[in-house]
Design goal:
Order of helices and strands: EHHHHEHHHH
Strand content: under 5%
Helix content: 55-70%
Structural class: mainly alpha
Oligomer: single chain
Strand order of the largest sheet: 1-2
Largest sheet: 2 strands, antiparallel
Distance between the termini: 35 Å
């Protein structure tokens, strides 16, 4: 698939996301939520990888009619045998790569949990939070978004409810 393609949700996907959660697995649902018409296929592939989804997850969403705008998949990259010294060097570097991928996975899980909880607590008064959640791609942006969500929850209800939101997100992120 072209990495510059920018897929979008179909009407069926919007209806699916507004309804019960039993049709898609949680990781596929999280990936579908991230298809916003702004992220290109390469960015969505990174998100899919962080959610432990297979490389063809985006194409599967398109085949199932949940997204549109992807071209046909490109053949997988050809793996070339590496010299032993280079393989050893990469093996030593891989724990850092794994922890980085784990950190990204943890951040995405916490973001989606917090996003879902905030939308439920604000019940229809969450349009601006939805837009700002799309910009969350690092821990610092996530913390800024959490502070904004917490203040909106407090303004919409009370400080106790906002504290409950922060506590539940902290438990989910731990």
């Amino acid at each position: 698939m072209s990495s510059s393609a920018t897929p979008t949700k179909t009407l069926a996907a919007r209806e699916l996301l507004a309804g019960p959660r039993s049709i898609l697995t949680v990781p596929m649902r999280m990936l579908l939520i991230n298809v916003d018409g702004r992220r290109n296929a390469a960015e969505l592939q990174d998100i899919a990888r962080s959610l432990n989804l297979k490389p063809h997850a985006l194409m599967q969403l398109q085949r199932d009619g949940w997204i549109a705008g992807l071209s046909e998949p490109l053949p997988p990259p050809v793996e070339v045998e590496q010299p032993a010294a280079q393989a050893e060097a990469e093996a030593e570097a891989s724990p850092a790569r794994v922890s980085s991928a784990e950190d990204l996975r943890r951040l995405m899980r916490a973001k989606m949990f917090a996003f879902d909880l905030a939308c439920r607590m604000l019940a229809g008064r969450d349009a601006e939070l939805r837009v700002s959640a799309r910009e969350v791609n690092s821990e610092s942006r996530f913390l800024d978004w959490l502070a904004e969500a917490s203040s909106r929850i407090e303004a919409a209800s009370d400080a106790e409810r906002a504290q409950l939101f922060r506590d539940r997100v902290a438990q989910a992120a731990a």
